[in-house]
Amino acid sequence: MSGLNDAIAQAMRHLGERQRVIAQNIANSDTPGYRAQELAEPKASFAAMVDGRIVTARPHVTLSEGMRRLGARQTSGGALIPDPSISEVKPDGNTVTLEDQVLKMGQIQADYAALTGLYRKQMALVRSALGKGGST
Question: What's the predicted TM-score (pTM) here?
Answer without folding.
Answer: 0.66
